[in-house]
Design a protein that fits this description.
The complex is a heterodimer.
Chain A lengths: L3 E3 L4 E4 L4 E7 L6 E7 L5 E7 L4 E3 L2 E6 L4 E6 L8 E10 L8 E5 L3 E6 L1
Parallel strand pairs in A: 2-11
Antiparallel strand pairs in A: 1-3, 3-8, 4-5, 4-9, 6-7, 7-8, 9-10, 9-11
Chain B lengths: L4 E3 L2 E4 L5 E6 L6 E7 L6 E7 L2 E5 L6 E5 L5 E5 L8 E8 L9 E2 L3 E5 L1
Parallel strand pairs in B: 2-11
Antiparallel strand pairs in B: 1-3, 3-8, 4-5, 4-9, 5-6, 7-8, 9-10, 9-11
Classes of the chains: A mainly beta, B mainly beta.
């Protein structure tokens, strides 16, 4: 089983629609969770961190369920500019070496296309 | 404030050759992580450098090695290139403080192995 799993999509939605992405992770020792956005042929950029209490940033809402090891991202009122690949990312302490040694594990990403 | 920079942007090599990729972290950051992103995949962690030492390593062979310099910049070296090494190589910088610390990515180096 992959450490971070996402539905690869693509999700094709009309402008103004609400779309939800889901992600599961297998390592219960995971400590921090993020959604990154990656535009075509560009580097990933942090969209938002994900907290157990849920967090919202404008049209974006992220939720974490530690018991189910499940992360979600909700996008309301989709814009054309939201078209991108959304990467679920898990951050955990990794083996070695002294204070604060962590690594990011990425899902394969979910591709979103917002259609006019 | 300069973000993470990487060079070169694109590179073409042949099988068996060696390649060196370079990364300069965001100002004030002390930790550099390297990732390999194959087409259609998420980035895969290669290794992380802090205080000029490799601190963590992903599931990559010894052909992949790196270095961090006193100014925190870093190099990724790949020996005996294989066709499967063709990918986008991403460098990310952060502060070595904890799991919530954001990693900032550079634009990447696209490597094509023929």
């Amino acid at each position: 089983r992959k450490e971070v799993e996402q539905d690869p999509g693509p999700f094709n939605v009309p402008e103004g629609a609400t779309v939800a992405f889901n992600c599961t992770y297998s390592n219960s020792a995971s400590q921090s969770f993020f959604w990154y956005r990656q535009d075509c042929r560009k580097e990933p950029k942090l969209l938002m961190s994900v907290y157990s209490s849920g967090n919202e940033d404008g049209r974006f809402t992220a939720q974490l369920n530690r018991a189910s090891q499940y992360i979600s991202l909700l996008i309301r009122d989709s814009k054309l500019s939201d078209s991108a690949t959304y990467l679920c990312v898990v951050h955990r302490a990794a083996g070695y070496s002294g204070a604060g040694s962590y690594q990011l594990t990425f899902g394969k990403g979910t591709k979103l296309s917002v259609i006019p | 404030d300069a973000g993470v920079t990487q060079s070169p942007t694109h590179l073409i090599k042949t099988r068996g050759q060696q390649v060196t990729l370079r990364c300069s972290p965001k100002s004030g950051h002390d930790t550099v992580s390297w990732y390999q992103q194959a087409l259609g995949q998420g980035p895969q962690f290669i290794f992380q450098y802090y205080e000029e030492e490799e601190r963590q390593r992903g599931n990559f062979p010894d052909r992949f090695s790196g270095h961090q310099f006193p100014n925190y910049s870093s190099e990724l070296n790949v020996n005996a290139l294989l066709l499967g090494d063709s990918a986008l190589y991403l460098c990310a910088s952060s502060l070595m403080t904890g799991p919530g610390e954001t990693q900032y990515f550079g634009p990447g180096t696209r490597l094509l192995v023929l």
